[in-house]
Amino acid sequence: MSTAAGGGAPTRTVIVGQGYVGLPLAMGAVGAGHDVVGFDVDGERIGRLRAGESYIEDVPDSAVAAALATGRYTPTDDPGDCAGFDTLVITVPTPLREGVPDLSFVEGATAAIAGHVRPGCTVILESTTYPGTTEELVGPILAEASGFTPGVDFALGYSPERIDPGNATWQLANTPKVVAGVNDSSLEAVDAFYRQIVDATVPVSGTRVAELTKLLENTFRHVNIALANELAVFAADLEIDIWEAISAASTKPYGYMRFTPGPGVGGHCLPIDPSYLSWQVRRSLGRAFRFVELANDVNDHMPDYVVARLIRLLNGQGMALSRSTVLVLGLAYKKNTSDARESPAKAIVEQLLELGAEVRVADPHVVEERFVPEGAKRVDVTADEVAAADVVVLVTDHDGFPYDVVEANARALFDTRARLSGPGVERL
Ligand SMILES: NC(=O)c1ccc[n+]([C@@H]2O[C@H](COP(=O)([O-])OP(=O)(O)OC[C@H]3O[C@@H](n4cnc5c(N)ncnc54)[C@H](O)[C@@H]3O)[C@@H](O)[C@H]2O)c1
Question: Are 304 and 311 in contact (CB under 8 A)?
Answer without folding.
Answer: no
